[in-house]
Amino acid sequence: MCGQGATVGGRFSELRGIIDKVRDQSRVGVCLDTCHAFAAGYDLAAEGGVRAMLDEFDQEVGLHYLKAVHLNDSKGQLGCNLDRHEDIGKGCIGISAFRDVVNEPRLNNIPLILETPGRTGFEYEDQIKLLFSLCRKP
Q1: Would you call 118 exposed, middle or buried from its count of C-beta atoms within 10 A (0-12, 13-18, 19+)?
Q2: What is the residue range of the signal peptide feature (predicted)?
Q3: Long-range pairs for 48-57 at CB < 8 Å and ≥24 separation?
Q4: Which CATH architecture has domain 12-133?
């Protein structure tokens, strides 16, 4: 899924159309990228935005196709159609959305893969610790 303007697959309905053309759909999987989704207009930053996005993904594509999530913030604004990753909590999506992602029960068995610039001073280890700190304890 990408939000790069004319790129195919920028909306979940387009992904469904692609999947429908595959003969053996058991071999299909989707990796959802938080920056791409935000750039495509899915408002993860809004209250309930992560839940709403996953509801739409489930309705349009089917959660059984979701095999991984790339976690990254966005340098661009909502709906900007630009794939510009930012470190967690340092971009336009914001920390609250990532709290919702790491606590979303439908993602419990889905790999969450950090895909950020990892700049000096806020490296991957720091971002992983931050994400773990956002997890609610059972």
Answers
A1: middle
A2: none
A3: 49/97, 49/100, 50/97, 50/100, 50/101, 50/104, 51/100, 51/104, 54/104, 54/106, 54/107, 56/12, 57/12, 57/32
A4: Alpha-Beta Barrel (3.20)
Q: What is the pTM of this model?
A: 0.91
- Supply 137's token pair: 């304890």
Distances (CA, A) of 127 to 8, 21, 107, 121: 31, 38, 19, 10
pLDDT tens for 97-137 read 999 999 999 999 999 999 999 887 899 999 999 999 999 87
Tokens of 101: 């992602």
